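Now for one record.
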Amino acid sequence: MTPASVADYRAAAKRRLPRVLFDYIDGGSYAEATLAANVADLRALKLRQRVLRDVSELSTTTTLFGQTLAMPVVLAPVGLAGMYARRGEAQAARAAKAAGVPFTLSTMGVCTAAEVARAAAPPWFQLYMIRDRGFMAEVLSRTAALGCPVLVFTVDLPVPGARYRDVRNGMVATTPAQRAAQIIDGLAHPAWLWDVQINGGPHVLGTVAEAAKDLKRLVEFWSWAGRNFDPSVTWDDLAWVREHWKGPILLKGVLDVADARSAADLGVEGIVISNHGGRQLDSAPSSIEALAPIAQAVGDRVSVLMDGGVRSGLDVLKAMAAGARACLIGRAWAWSLGAAGEAGVAHMLQILRQELRVAMALTGCVDVNSASAELLAD
């Protein structure tokens, strides 16, 4: 069956991937209430259907930080993507380049920024701050030298969230029984085993490999993160980041208007409204709920993007109407990569663009940049 939606790619990824990896993509924190709200609140947002409008010519193109995007979509940073398909970050970056949208490499990715740049183009780079600032300065220097255009500084993970699926599956600390279950499950997924486990090495966190020599198994990387991520980072540390990065900086993980104002006051070029896909503080607001107040407060000072719950081009238009300049998508591309590699990501992006065009036509919106609250039903 040919996938027709992001949901179809989720189902296909669930069949192809070992449980420990699928649940890492799919799961959230605590009771996963915020994860569910991200999707449900977007679904509940109503659009005005307009008729007898000339929609024969539609434009989904936008510009962001000096780049032209074929549609207002950015592939969000996703950790361990190189375990979903062979050299997964490079595959996804090629698909993003072909679709005319940016790809963001996670600090916790398997591929390095240099490998992604060779495969496609210099990616946007996502920064987690670890305790060794000298090492992080070297990472930023190397990344900037490649020509990576945008830094996405994730600020909502001073400590890893309480992700019950990952604990049960042995991703935090693996017991002998859990390790045996992982081996058996891997053997039960031969296509993944051949593509990734046998032929997809090296299985390391490429960007931080030199700092993570004590990490013996990638599926236990959250334990390493807990030991090495820096929980002391504050607003004052933005000056350090700016010292080592001269290009645009996006703060990812903003949900509160006061924090958005602080970010704007400190001169960042953009913010990403995000609750980390419902993977950090459960019971935090959904991204779409937080979007409009923040866009109204600082949208004239910084570029406001949204991440969380986007499962279709229809969702992209809703977010644009609520005040976003563009959307980041994470699970959508991770599922499609896990299901079908580069071809899956490319097809998923085609689906999103077509869904966006249909939604624009049916709301009478001929230019995605003109989307506003006028598209939203009361």
Summary: The radius of gyration is 20 Å. The beta strands are 62-64, 67-69, 73-75, 104-105, 124-127, 151-154, 249-254, 270-273, 303-307, 326-329. The chain has a mean pLDDT of 95. The first strand starts at residue 62 and ends at 64.
